[in-house]
Write a structure and sequence with these properties.
Residues 8-111 form the SnoaL-like domain. It comes from Frankia torreyi. With 124 residues, this protein is of the alpha+beta class. 25% of the residues are buried. It has a six-stranded mixed β-sheet with strand order 2-1-6-5-4-3. The chain has helices at residues 3-16, 20-30, 47-60, and strands at 31-39, 42-45, 65-75, 78-86, 95-103, 109-118.
Length: 124
């Protein structure tokens, strides 16, 4: 397993955690203390704000899970991958995107640049 694959696995673990304590622990494992997350609907810095963002997504999409699409591709301190947010009811994926992670020397995330490819009306 490469540093890129490990970072992506920790990233999905954070996004798929649903209880506040588990979200906080997963975010701490995945991000540096001053790490950030930016997409067209959000821009946050710091683990607490990232954990709040993740909790907010779970409130908006209860029971949904994030899953990777395709294979992550990385070099140096950068990794990119596709993802989708999947409904537990019917397996549909109303939200999908593509993220680019910039990693710190220890393999944790310094920054996320997120791109949303598919978003339902009224989200964001």
């Amino acid at each position: 397993m490469t540093v890129h694959t490990e970072a992506v696995e920790r990233y999905f673990a954070a996004w798929n955690a649903t209880e506040p304590d588990r979200i906080a622990a997963a975010v701490s494992a995945a991000w540096t203390p001053d790490g950030g997350y930016t997409d067209p609907t959000a821009e946050v810095v710091g683990r607490d704000r990232i954990a709040e963002l993740i909790a907010g997504v779970h409130r908006q999409f209860p029971g949904f899970t994030f899953r990777p699409v395709g294979t992550a591709d990385g070099h140096h301190d950068v990794v990119r991958f596709g993802w989708e947010l999947v409904s537990p009811a019917d397996g549909s994926a109303p939200v999908a995107g593509f993220d680019v992670l910039t990693l710190a020397e220890d393999g944790r995330i310094r920054a996320v640049s997120g791109f949303l490819d598919r978003v339902p009306a009224g989200v964001g």
